[in-house]
Amino acid sequence: MAINKFKPISPDYFITSDPEASLAKFGHLNFLIEYLNKIVNGVLLKKTSTLSSGGSVKLQLDKINKQDTALLTSPEENVVWGVEVNAVAIASIAGGTVAKGDSFQGKYVFLFKKVNNVATLVSINTASTSYDPSMVTASFGFRVGAAQDLEVTFNAPTTALSTTFKLSAVLTITEEVI
Question: What digits encode the pLDDT tens for the residues 118-131?
Fold first, then answer.
């Protein structure tokens, strides 16, 4: 998801004193943002949750400020996303036969599109996973949410019992609008 243009937020939550509030010229930042859009294009999702056998939880956007939306969607009515996901899960509190530190990692490549504001998860063509033996039945999943957004979920292994997992996923999105 590209930054596109620098848009000052008012009030700016990072300004903590009067001298910092003095006027600044922001126009030059658009050049930097356009450059960064070409080399950095990741969206970070995170969640910590306690789950038992087969339980599921939705990962959430790592929000920067109160004005950020919790939905992973495009404002465009007609858009296609080529999505690459690198996701990890680690047990921070043991439960069942899942020990502290047991982990799961998955890489996925798929197509997500929205036409006339109706989203579709087209297919998952590539998936590769690595995991500890107790995490063999764990997985990450992808679906279209009620708000026509992309949802990323973690499904706990069947061996989990009140196990706390720390979850992170980085999505790289290539977008085209029609």
Answer: 999 998 877 899 99
